[in-house]
Amino acid sequence: MTEQIKNPKKVGIKWKMFAILLAFLVVIIAVVWFFQVLMLDVFYRNTKFNELEQTTELIDMADDEREMKSVAYQCAVEYDSSVVVFDVVDGTAHTIIEAGSPTNSIMSFFSKRDLQYLYDMATERGGSYVATVSHDASSRNQKLTLRFEEYSPSLEFFTDFTRHSAVDVKIIHKSGVEYIVIQTSYLAPVAATVKTLNAQFLWIGIILVVLALILALIMSKVITRPIIKMNAAAQKLANGNYDADFEGSGYREIEELSKSLNYASTELAKNDKFQKELISNVSHDLRTPLTMIKGYAEVMRDIPGENTPENVQVVIDETERLAALVNDMLDVSKLQAGTRQPDMQVFSLTQAVSDVLRRYEKLTEQDGYIIDFYADREAFVSADSVMILQVIYNLINNAINYTGEDKTVTVRQDVSQNKVRISVADTGDGIEKEDIPYIWDRYYKVDKVHKRATVGTGLGLSITREILELHNARFGVASKIGYGSNFWFELDLAKDEFYER
Predict the structure, then answer these.
(1) Which residues are CB-contacts of 223 (< 8 A; sequence separation ≥ 6)?
(2) Which of 6, 110, 287, 424 is most exposed, with the fewest beta carbons within 10 Å of its own?
(3) Which ranges of 177-251 does DSSP label H, i.e. alpha helix?
């Protein structure tokens, strides 16, 4: 009995699934952490500056100062920013719009020098300047030293000890008037938020690892249940129990695998049965001539005058039959092993059939068999002549063994386009439809009861199949119960120059 050996070094499906789920969760958490924590400040500042830029564009699109004021107030409330609009008349800037809470924003600390600096920077950059402004948040001095830095995204985090604000300066021209739009918005520090998120991600990671382990246990149990059953059935099959049922359900792949294994089990059972039948049949075919040889030899040894030519001929005939059986078995083995390859040559298939039929003249004269051959014309093919002769010989032998009481066998040659077909028909009992796919197998016998062949060894159809497959030839059988069988094969015609007369 085959014993299942468990390898302790192999990892079970439960732990493999856990590892896959864990790796997936690690990747997901890493991606979320990267965007929610590491890139939080960058996205936050970009959002703030985009809001200020959008406000400027809306003010620039306004038709008059009244509409500009309406847009400024609306955006200041929506984006929590401060908006101041100046008009420049005769080189002097006058405040025309103040929206939001400029007094509570960094703009209340802008000196004239700072405003001039922002204007100059915007002028140098084509009318637009975007920057961050910072100062010491702990200082209570109203005259703060502001540090302007042109804005560019980075991974640097703001600390809680420095106040940062976004500044957007835009110079626009409307109806011949120059306007300066200055916006500021407080940039909240994200360091505390990052710390909070890191702590959350730690706990989220722990919880997800536990959930992944539980999910892996559940999934492995659900998925492996049909696999475990199929494994048990496979062990039965390995021990020679072909009744093992590969039951699998729940998943399309498992159901398909179970169907395939059940089919394989059925085929193995058939092959095992056919092989036992072959051994029984071959043993019978070997034992019969050996028994006759031994019997006649003992008679000729022990009884004076029995050493007659007739008795000697029986011994010779049985020896030839025994040699033919052994040779056929060797031919089957060589063909299936691929050691016997066809030697292609051009020859007359019509003449080959005629030569084979001449071998049966004695059989037709003594036993009353009628073998008719009909050919529409002479046909030449490119094939191994020896192998094709063997195919024809085997098909005629099979027809003689199974033909009806009229002992008639009909051989036909039909040429169609570039193909030539040889068919051999008998008038026997025919073959059941479910048996037809197996008749070419050397393990199979249609009648299930072994009988000694009139001619041949009983392995002819198996040899025929192997030879025709080597020639890439089409072959088959048409049979109807009570009307006999018609075996046929097709070969390609040789080129016209080979058979034109």
Answers:
(1) 13, 251
(2) 6
(3) 191-238
Domain spanning 341-499 has what CATH number? 3.30.565.10
Instruction: Classify each residue of 458-474 as buried b or exposed e, where b means 16 or more C-beta atoms within 10 Å of its C-beta.
Output: bbbbbbbbbbbebbebe
Return the C-alpha torsion angle 27, 31, 34, 37, nearest 10.
-100
| Ordered per-residue pLDDT tens for the chain, 501 residues | 344 444 556 667 777 777 888 888 888 888 888 877 777 777 888 888 888 888 888 988 888 888 989 998 999 888 888 899 998 888 788 888 888 865 557 877 888 888 888 888 989 988 899 888 876 655 444 555 677 777 765 545 444 445 778 899 999 988 888 999 998 888 877 777 777 888 888 888 888 888 888 887 777 777 777 777 777 777 777 777 767 777 766 667 777 777 777 777 777 777 777 667 666 666 666 776 787 788 878 888 888 877 788 778 877 877 876 776 677 667 666 666 666 787 888 999 999 899 888 878 776 777 788 999 999 889 999 988 888 888 888 898 888 888 888 889 999 999 988 899 999 999 998 888 888 887 887 545 555 444 445 444 557 788 788 888 888 999 999 998 888 999 999 999 987 544 444
Domain spanning 39-189: which CATH class is it, in words? alpha beta
How far apart, in whole angstroms, are the C-alpha atoms of residue 188 and residue 160?
9
Residue 152: strand, helix, or coil: coil
Domain boundaries 252-334, corresponding CATH code = 1.10.287.130
Domain regions of the chain by residue span: 13-37+195-237, 39-189, 252-334, 341-499
